[in-house]
Amino acid sequence: MLRVFLIRSALIAAPFVVWFVWSAWARRNGREMGATPWAWLAAAGAVLFGLSLMASAVFQSDNRGQTYVPAEVGEDGRVSPGHFEKKETPTP
Known about the structure:
With 92 residues, the chain is of the alpha+beta class.
């Protein structure tokens, strides 16, 4: 979950990072820079975030047709994590 949060945070921050790197490079080469386009940068970050949500919906595996088996505590005190198992179809 932390990995997904960090990836999406990086996607939101990417337009800002690109702008400030390009702005610093342009100033170093003597180019006059205008004001920072905060609204455009925020909109670009939001678009990247939205695209990542759509990509997750398209490319994530689907667990329909499977049964969730909840986590269990064994006799030795170890916890086995919850998982999905394929539904067994009754054979006639």
